[in-house]
Amino acid sequence: MRVGGEILTPVEPYQGPDTREMVYIKLKKALLAGEIGSGQRLVERKLAEKLGVSRTPVREAIRMLEREGLVRHVPRSGSVAVALSPGEVLDIYSIRAVLEGLAARLAAERIDEPNIRQMEEKVRQMDWCIQGGQTDRLENLHLEFNDLIYRSAGSPRLYRMITSLVDYVAGFTRTGYTHPGRMEEAAAEHRQLARAIAMRDGLLAERIAREHIENSRRAFFARAFNGEKNR
């Protein structure tokens, strides 16, 4: 189950200089969000038409996804979408918990006042979106809130490590948000995290961030894997 609008829309030139990269990003998001289901064939011609590009960037993007294990080549069938196993998803959540916990602690130590105000405003906007049922906007605000914390940590290397997982995070979040009560629970966690960072309590911020990831994992597994590994 997916929250939000269609991902596989035509690539627009202003979105980035590299068409292959934009096609890769769109296909990856569609795979992680379930818009392209496990076992579904990725037909170059159809994808090229849907995205409004030539077949070359689609072919190259599919090869990139094959290297990541999200797509596999099947003889006489072509490229087929591969679902992440519960163990692989668990690994991603475990890595996220460590990295995002560290980012929250560093952000509490290093964030400046303008970014504190911006972070608090993001929290208010997320609350308004939940009340108004604006799930598309909520997803974007969630990513913006996270990115603000990552940047406020003041570590370019840590930022690169965390953002390499952003596409997975977005896909998992969409699914997790469909679990009853998860949106409201996540909103409360964001408020607690913002408060801890504003108080410059690094240890508390780290603990809340890690608990938030764990609760997100539980919600995702409940929806995607019928609770498997939700121990």
From TrEMBL:
Name of the protein this chain belongs to: FCD domain-containing protein
SMART domains on file: FCD (SM00895), HTH_GNTR (SM00345)
Domain (HTH gntR-type): residue spans on this chain: 17-84
Species this chain originates from: Desulfofundulus thermobenzoicus
This protein's UniProt keywords: DNA-binding, Transcription, Transcription regulation
SUPFAM superfamilies: GntR ligand-binding domain-like, Winged helix' DNA-binding domain
InterPro entries: AsnC-type_HTH_dom, GntR_C, TF_FadR/GntR_C, Tscrpt_reg_HTH_GntR, WH-like_DNA-bd_sf, WH_DNA-bd_sf
GO molecular function: DNA-binding transcription factor activity; sequence-specific DNA binding
Signal peptide extent: none
PROSITE patterns to which the protein is assigned, alphabetical: HTH_GNTR
Pfam family, one: GntR
Keyword Ribonucleoprotein carried by entry: no
